[in-house]
Amino acid sequence: MRYLSWAYLAAMFGFILLPVAVLVVFSFQDGRLPVPPFNGPTAEWYAKVLGDRDLMAALGNSMLVALASSAVALTLGFLAAAGFAQARLPGGALMRGLIIAPMTVSYLIIGLGLLQMFNWAGVRPSLMATGIGHVVINLPLCFAILSAAIGAPQKSALKAARDLGAGEAQVLLLILAPMIAPSLAAAFFLSFTFSWDEFIIAFLLTRFDVTLPVEIWSMLRSGLSPETNAVGSLVFLVSVLLVVTLELTLFRKASK
Amino acid sequence: MTFRMQTLGLAAAGGLLSTTALQAAEDLNALIWCDHADAALLEPFETAHDVRVNVKEYEGTAAGLTILEQSRPGDWDVMVIDSVDVARAAEAGFLAPLPGGAIDTSATFPEVALTDAMTVGGQLYGVTEKFGYNTIAFNKAAVDPADMASLASLWSGKYDGRIAIYDYYLPVLGLVGLAEGVDTADLDAAALETLRDPLMGLRAASRQVSDVVGSQTALATGEVDILIGGGEWLTAVLHSENPDLDWTIPEEGGLVWAQAMAMVEGTEKPELALEFIRYILSPEGQARLATSSCYWGMPANKAAGEVLTDDEKAVLRWNDQEAYLARAQLYPVPDADTDMAMQDLWTDMLQN
Amino acid sequence: MSIERSEKRLGAALAAPALLWTAAFFVLPFAAMVWMSLGHMEGRAVLPGPDLQTYARIFTDPSLAKGIRVSLEITLTVTVLSVLLAWPLAWIIATRVPARWRRLALLLAVLPFWTSYVVRSYSWALVLGEKGVIMNALTGLGLLAEPVQIMATRAATVIGFTHFFVMLLTLTIYSNLVQLSPNYARAAEDLGASRWQVIRLVILPLTLPGVMTGAFLTFVLCIGDYITPQILGGNNELSLPQLIMLQLGRRGDYPLASGLSVVLMVMVTLAYAGCARWLKMERV
């Protein structure tokens, strides 16, 4: 049983990590084809990536869309969670259901619907349109996480603060927000990740300024090259560094 | 924590708004094919005229026209389009006429100039910028080059499972037509039905139907040995990796593709748009376009020969063009209904 | 009474922005899409309905109907396969791996999450190709005389998907497992249950909510994904999202794309109804 467990663990880690390992190794491929045989290491493709104007612009765009859409989703989700904690609203279950609904719908459908609505309204595809779509997918997530974080202790603290005469803005920002800070951070972090990696909505709703996944997609479509490996490896390494840092600082503290 | 995040969020949202405001005074919006996305092609023009060329790729004329339909006047300044489709785009009101004599086309290869085909109501609506062939590309180390002299070899059974089909319905349907003795000019709805069985037969004999990258990968790594629909645009990029990759025009003929630059109706910058078209058709622009990172192809302007290196010309087979052009046919030009029927047939082929 | 009313008003005011956003950018676009699907294309023009021509076409055109079947088959295969592979992995990490290595093991098990989704599919194309790492190793070791085609088949799509969803399910099942009190298992053992019986009769049923939440997410994300089948499937059969994108990208047939999307939506809703009693979406 024990050996079987370890063998299974090793096999699954092999399966999970294999494509990433291959990706990183062949990002150093000397030659145009990122498949065996490995011709020896070169940093050429990384230099090319860092010098690629469109790619760097897309990186900036992705950062912008992810930050802005996560901030909006977090704010709206926070307010709504606080609102539902405030009082039992008539039709509350239905309204909660409405806010959660986009979570159960394919991104392709959300993107296609927005595309058609924007077409009708004469709104051009843009990063802003993409950001709006990303808020739609991340709002339910933020709302769900924050709703779960507001329990009985938070509710009674809110009530106490109000009874003592605190204004509504004070109550939300100075009492509630600090109490659920770890959940706020988690919701923001998750939203950021989803927006950062989202392809189909961004693909449908952008035109000239595109996000990183869309730019990588057009790189893929325009020819096989280890440059794609290099971009993928860079994104991977930077994200892992970020995750490990967060794990060692923020979340470790939060869990204690 | 939230304060900081909200500030961050507001700052980011502000940045989002300002990028639109901060863009260079001049923008040129171009609806293009992937070869025009190459920074090496656009940069000299951008620097010289202090503009930013915004590009959006599309595939297939139907998709391009849909994008134009959904846009507002002024959204687009120039577009790349199949030369044979310029007339129907112009008739539908999507293109603006080019002023007479605005662009010098005297050194254009006459077979692909297609000036008459791009003239509607006495006015010229496009200029051919680049051309090449959709025929058979193959790995000469793995197949008998003699077999490649006839399209019929693809249906012979000898190469079953070693063929890839290029995923673009127009040229491949054109080639299947040639194999059946139908000229591309005669490819109408009735002729189309006779192509269904041979197309499905080709599908059965092939391993995959793939886009540019999928085709390149499969051919370069030896997963397939033949690509129908391929040509120098596919093999040239891979020439240094695998010199065995070759292409030919079989005895039944092949298809010549020609892409044109056109000015979009409603542009607010006709001068800049013309300037861009002039740059693309200049010898320097032509050389860069011919060797663009997405795919290579013959420059329409013979004067580019002075800028291209001998190696580049050898890969492009500069000296064989006359012989090739004599044997190649133009793309089919379907009307809207035939076009839809072709795409439906293509979807059936993919799905079966 | 008046305090309660003002609290209600305040609560509603706080919830209003989120509700308005969802109404404007989710409900309205969806309604627009449904309306579009009730029209149809003639030549290059969209004829607004309402008529059912587009839906009639979806269910009679064999190519389109096959897309629905292909999507369902792939998604169900991937969901079942991912659950079967992920459950033991989560269980081993939660119970066999020493406590201080647990977080590291979990992090390793989901490490590829942190590369771009598009790139992840692409990297499987490099691995599975005929000249890829796997075939190279197998033929090199003499285990295979000839490389076998995996790339550009349904198997490649399923492998690419399963890779992603095993990671996702490992997370949801793991978080369910660590919340279980070890007392359940101990009690069952005290009552004379064997280790297998404990897993099968006690732990497995208790992880059902985690499994079902993960399985539902897998279903939704898998059936709506365009990238993985497009990169790995080699166009040898088209899934529903591929057909939708084909209508948009090449034909500009918005009514048909919308109709296919509505069909997709219906399938996801049915899946939701099927799993609903195990799901607590608010606790995902």
User: What is the β-strand count of chain C?
Assistant: 2
Q: Number of helix segments of chain B? A: 14
In CATH terms, what is the architecture of chain C?
A: Orthogonal Bundle
User: Beta-strand percentage of chain B?
Assistant: 15-25%
Count of discrete structural domains of chain B: 2
Distance between the termini of chain B: 56 Å
- Given the helix and strand composition of chain B, which structural class is it? alpha/beta
Low-pLDDT residue intervals, each spanning 5 or more residues of chain C: none
Write a short abstract of this structure.
The complex is a heterotrimer of chains A (256), B (352) and C (284). Helices cover 78% and strands 0% of the residues of chain A.
Describe the structure in your own words.
The complex is a heterotrimer of chains A (256), B (352) and C (284). Chain A is an all-alpha fold. Chain A has a domain at 65-223: MetI-like (MetI-like fold, Orthogonal Bundle), CATH 1.10.3720. Chain A has helices at residues 2-26, 44-50, 53-86, 92-100, 107-121, 127-149, 152-163, 168-179, 181-197, 200-205, 212-221, 226-255. Chain A starts with a helix and ends with a helix. By secondary structure, chain B is an alpha/beta fold. Chain B has 2 domains: 24-131 and 258-317, Periplasmic binding protein-like II (D-Maltodextrin-Binding Protein, domain 2, 3-Layer(aba) Sandwich), CATH 3.40.190.10; 132-256 and 329-351, Periplasmic binding protein-like II (D-Maltodextrin-Binding Protein, domain 2, 3-Layer(aba) Sandwich), CATH 3.40.190. Chain B has 14 helices and 14 strands. Residues 1-23 of chain B have low confidence and may be disordered. Chain C is mainly α and 284 residues long. The longest helix of chain C has 36 residues, at 2-37. The radius of gyration of chain C is 24 Å and the shape is flat. Chains in contact: A-B, A-C, B-C.
Keywords:
heterotrimer, A: 256 residues, mainly alpha, MetI-like fold, 12 helices, 78% helix, C: 284 residues, 13 helices, 2% strand
Q: What layout of secondary structure does this protein have?
A:
The complex is a heterotrimer of chains A (about 260), B (about 350) and C (about 280).
Chain A: H1 2-26, H2 44-50, H3 53-86, H4 92-100, H5 107-121, H6 127-149, H7 152-163, H8 168-179, H9 181-197, H10 200-205, H11 212-221, H12 226-255
Helix pairs in contact in A: 1-12, 2-12, 3-6, 3-9, 3-11, 5-6, 6-9, 7-8
Chain B: H1 2-22, E1 27-32, H2 39-49, E2 52-57, H3 61-69, E3 78-82, H4 86-91, E4 95-96, H5 110-113, E5 119-120, E6 123-124, E7 127-139, E8 163-166, H6 169-179, H7 189-205, E9 206-210, H8 212-220, E10 226-230, H9 232-235, E11 245-248, E12 254-264, H10 270-281, H11 283-290, E13 298-299, H12 310-316, H13 321-327, E14 328-330, H14 336-351
Parallel strand pairs in B: 1-2, 1-3, 8-9, 8-10, 12-14
Antiparallel strand pairs in B: 3-12, 4-12, 5-6, 7-10, 7-11, 7-12, 7-13
Chain C: H1 2-37, E1 40-42, E2 45-47, H2 53-60, H3 62-96, H4 99-109, H5 117-128, H6 133-140, H7 154-179, H8 182-190, H9 195-206, H10 208-223, H11 227-232, H12 240-251, H13 254-275
Antiparallel strand pairs in C: 1-2
Helix pairs in contact in C: 1-13, 3-4, 3-7, 3-10, 3-12, 5-7, 7-10, 8-9, 10-13, 12-13
